[in-house]
Amino acid sequence: MKEIGGYFEFEQLVDNEYYKDLLKLNTGRNALVYLMKAKKIKKIYIPYYLCESVYEILEKYNYEYEFYQIKEGFLPDFNKELLEDEYLYIVNCYGQLSNNVIIKLKERYKNIILDNTHAFFQKPIENVDIIYNCRKWFGVPDGAYLSTNCNLKGELKKDFSKERMKHLLGRYEENASNYYNYFKENDIQFKEESLKKMSDLTQNLMGAIDYKRIKKIRKLNYEYLDKKLKDINKLKLNTPKIPFCYPLYLENLDVENLKKKLAEQKIYIPTLWPNVIKENPQESIEYKYAKNILPIPCDQRYNKKNMENIVINIFKILEESL
Description:
The longest helix is centred in the last third of the chain and has 19 residues. The protein has 2 domains: 184 residues, Aspartate Aminotransferase, domain 2 (3-Layer(aba) Sandwich), CATH 3.40.640; 110 residues, Aspartate Aminotransferase, domain 1. It is of the alpha/beta class. The model has no long low-confidence stretch (mean pLDDT 96). Helices cover 36% and strands 14% of the residues.
């Protein structure tokens, strides 16, 4: 029975989800678990160039996996023939793999799972299992979308995210540094989170986002960065329709020092992913990409002036290091 009277709860916002018809789950890694269970996958091949959370979740549920290498352009360097219960896990790094490329990969390998963590706005493809991550693109406490034609038997529990809002609300009203530890605690907790439905809180927030505005800002910021930085960028980039970030690949430079100097100017550039640097030989493309690519933020929080500040500081630091 519905409670009547008393104090107000959080408001029901506009119901305008971008992927209203896709399966709504609590995390991207659990979206993979959903597919492993629903498709009865016995073995999955995953790239070395990958966030450790993926193979950690596979180990948690005792799934068999094997690593493969990528080649230039973030394409899989994989020549094995997959068995019926084996799948190839493809990561669309920085949104560099267009849907046309994915379709060709599907034709080549048949059994593929696409990780579109870096390509939220890249449309689903018929008969391709695709994972989309919400937290990497928007200020929400949980959430992933899964495009699939398979169904897992049994009803999933719904996640609850009211305790995961502190870092989001703290940064909104104050600053990021004061609430960074809460953000890290959340990340650690997600490692133990089981497969559940997306929380009502996140679904409510995802329905109220101005996606048109976000797409416009990301495109403009990316275009500016590319115009100013493409001459020093060693990556041959395919411009994604809606970018995740601007991946700047620098060779023969002290990239860690550059990040440190940028951080002194309150420009924080993460490393995607530290585990790749630890686990791969220095001559590998995976090591070089992980160590030398700066994923420069170009998202909806920033404007052209912010992008100008990033570019000015990058060139200033590079000149000082000569």
